Amino acid sequence: MTHVNTPRDGGVRLAVVQLDDYGPWTTTPEPRRETDLQALQARLFATVADFFGDRDGYAFAGRYDNMLGVANHIDPEAFTRLQERVANQYPVTVSVGVGTAPTPVAALEAAGDVLQAAGSAQETDRREVLDHRVVDGATPGTLTVAHFDVVDVTGELTDRVSPDVAERTVRRTMLALSERLAEEHAAVTQFVGGDNAIAVCPDVGRPALESVLEHVRSETGVELQVGVGHGPSAHAAGFEAKHALEACRATGSRIEGPWGVADD
Amino acid sequence: MTHVNTPRDGGVRLAVVQLDDYGPWTTTPEPRRETDLQALQARLFATVADFFGDRDGYAFAGRYDNMLGVANHIDPEAFTRLQERVANQYPVTVSVGVGTAPTPVAALEAAGDVLQAAGSAQETDRREVLDHRVVDGATPGTLTVAHFDVVDVTGELTDRVSPDVAERTVRRTMLALSERLAEEHAAVTQFVGGDNAIAVCPDVGRPALESVLEHVRSETGVELQVGVGHGPSAHAAGFEAKHALEACRATGSRIEGPWGVADD
Amino acid sequence: MTHVNTPRDGGVRLAVVQLDDYGPWTTTPEPRRETDLQALQARLFATVADFFGDRDGYAFAGRYDNMLGVANHIDPEAFTRLQERVANQYPVTVSVGVGTAPTPVAALEAAGDVLQAAGSAQETDRREVLDHRVVDGATPGTLTVAHFDVVDVTGELTDRVSPDVAERTVRRTMLALSERLAEEHAAVTQFVGGDNAIAVCPDVGRPALESVLEHVRSETGVELQVGVGHGPSAHAAGFEAKHALEACRATGSRIEGPWGVADD
Amino acid sequence: MTHVNTPRDGGVRLAVVQLDDYGPWTTTPEPRRETDLQALQARLFATVADFFGDRDGYAFAGRYDNMLGVANHIDPEAFTRLQERVANQYPVTVSVGVGTAPTPVAALEAAGDVLQAAGSAQETDRREVLDHRVVDGATPGTLTVAHFDVVDVTGELTDRVSPDVAERTVRRTMLALSERLAEEHAAVTQFVGGDNAIAVCPDVGRPALESVLEHVRSETGVELQVGVGHGPSAHAAGFEAKHALEACRATGSRIEGPWGVADD
């Protein structure tokens, strides 16, 4: 494993990409057509995803007006380029808060803090803020990414129940997962479509993940599986995690990761 | 009110737009870069949203691989045009199930049923299915749309707590709302970004909505407000609902809709 | 042939989609990044193309700030929907001029006229104009579309000369084609990528096309082939033209169209 | 001027982004809807433009199936990321040829050569080629960008003549410009929309540009103005050129650039 010699508990850098004064814009001068807003939000997120992807980061839609990104490889100043692109291609602008901290939860809180410190999300003259906060002198290090999905989602849900029941079941499951991982492991977890969720987390071992999966199953009745990866960027760690999840699918195991026997 | 002479409890037509064999594609020949998938899903949904918007419908991202649309104004055959466009512009194809039924829940179930009847979502040779099921002879009629948001979300959440806490709070709230509206009113409810959710529902009155808001508040601690509209299309009904929600914001009331005093 | 009973020389409806006050916007407050402008223009045109495509029309990028569309099937009022979408999804707005006339050239001139009559393209307060002019009482009728390409472009140009030489050769050829078709047949011709050009033209027969191809060859040294189709919409006529062009490719003939022996 | 100490005649790196086997795809199994192809080509170019823009390059649509980019700041290996993104988000793939040479014309020829050497653009098994050729040991150096537009295009063309006449006039002008600059200065020139053309050229002085403008005027009757910039990247040079062109617009001069009196 190439990660063996890198510290697994390096700091994490997360970013919040927040639409400036978006709520009021959606109803000015009168409410805008909902499908136009849906398409705008989606394409804007695609632009954000491409921006992070170009830098080996990860991006998440969040609430669409508050998107998230994993930015371990990204200099905070680079976000001026994203802000410029959005301003030139969209009818809205974005502010970006960046946080670098020992844990994902602390990094995201710091990213949110810098935006809140700059003014309200609905202040008309707070536009295109870009700021960065470092917590406890953390620097971006090796990331751990855990990629979860539902065991046999097609057979259990997609091909069997109504689409809204399937969606609520998946959403409820991912919400329980996100809450547990945040509380117990200071991880930030996002639903990424289908039956997939991705967590940026401190290094966790197999026993901790077993406990998380068991908690989610008891709360929601849904069985998850998870692949874990480490790497210098979200893409590198996430790619290893995806391969590990493929191993789950192939072998029927529920947890796969870059651990030797001694690690378990 | 222009809707006065139309029956308010007309049938509902909903569509499920399902990516064909998508899960396997995302990992073939090896896992694809996550940000590329995020961007693909988002832009594909934007195409779907524009398609529905062009026909005065509404579209929702759902789980991204299973998108939803309100199609009261749309002939089921018209979806061949969407399927053609997706096949020509994207690396994936879509199947579309359409259901017309007396209630949104029944319509969505029918839409899902026709896809399930055609084969598994992960069958490699089930591609570009298009089918329509009518339940109890229903025909598309006047729609009721309820547009919800969180009272003072900026002050209570966005400007105050960490982005992931804000998101989980909103998601948990919208999940509770969706469950309640499905169970008690056979409505289909979708989160549409920020702090907004839109429900396609049978005609509901003020007391029923009061009960729903109270239920959500007691379950999640979050206070919602709602505007209701009727109309021949999702856009028409939704536009009236958005205006009603604006009235909530302006007046401080929690429920606004197209009711006279006698209706309350 | 399904077109046999329809008049082949019906009127033509063309539209100009003009960005409002675009030049000044591109340099305000200072010049915007060129690649952002390129991407903006391209995606905006894609939105326009989808809009026309949804209505069985054709769309052409033109100069990007002045796009064109074939709108025989489109009620001029429908463009308010396009204007709404652009305003909601892009940082710019568009005006639309529509002309219905006996010939394509006259229709495009009328479409341009109504915009010019409404004010300058760079007037800051001329925004989202939509107007329609009918010439000589024309109504949209059966369209003739001619689809041209370069004989063996891959062998003659793409695989053989430098990309800029290939492009200039193709552009010069298409310019000569466009000029000739405009002057002699009142047709509107647009380059559509690769080695393809599409002309909306009055009904032309094989001898006229032979003369056009010969003119282009003598002017530019490039040999073109062409497929012709008729139909009630640009898509219908163009689809027949594409099939005819396929017949050229398959048989080695240079002109194919919906003519019986007697027509030739 | 910050460019003073950098050599102005450094090498140029250009890239050709060529759609693989695109022509056949557009007609398989039967001709695809033209507006879908237009939208696909446009969005794919937007993706390419964003990719180059992210690296301070420039991108040009070319013939759409053969796009161009200025890549002085881009490691040829970086294009694997673009190829990956296109393959993941579009139904087509791209090959990329990169050339580094003393002049733009030589660089583009080299970029084309490496693709031609790899096989035909319509070979079904030539996919996602990426190769780089260096001519005469050139390395990317300081670039010169010249940004041209038509003097008073709005008054002379857009507001006065038919859109197709305006377009042909502009296209004819830009073609004459491109030919002249290629022949006399080994420059690569692309139309970029509206009335704008951008040339990547070796360092040219005011007298040479006067001669070019005079040639174009005598050939086409159209008067151009031009701003020139130098810089380490296309964006840096182009940004200076845009500012210089603004100076033309402000002062009425026809040529502005980073020259002292002694240079003239």
UniProtKB/TrEMBL annotation, chains A, B, C, D:
Function as written in the Swiss-Prot or TrEMBL entry: Catalyzes the formation of 2-amino-5-formylamino-6-ribofuranosylamino-4(3H)-pyrimidinone ribonucleotide monophosphate and inorganic phosphate from GTP. Also has an independent pyrophosphate phosphohydrolase activity.
Protein name as catalogued: GTP cyclohydrolase III
Enzyme Commission no: 3.5.4.29
Pfam families xrefs: GCH_III (PF05165)
InterPro entries given in the database record: GTP_CycHdrlase_3, Nucleotide_cyclase, Rev_trsase/Diguanyl_cyclase
Stored Gene3D superfamilies: 3.30.70.270, Nucleotide cyclase (3.30.70.1230)
Keywords: GTP-binding, Hydrolase, Nucleotide-binding
Enzyme class name: hydrolase
Catalytic activity: GTP + 3 H2O = 2-amino-5-formylamino-6-(5-phospho-D-ribosylamino)pyrimidin-4(3H)-one + 2 phosphate + 2 H(+)
Organism ancestry: Archaea, Methanobacteriati, Methanobacteriota, Stenosarchaea group, Halobacteria
Family label: Belongs to the archaeal-type GTP cyclohydrolase family.
GO MF: GTP binding; GTP cyclohydrolase IIa activity
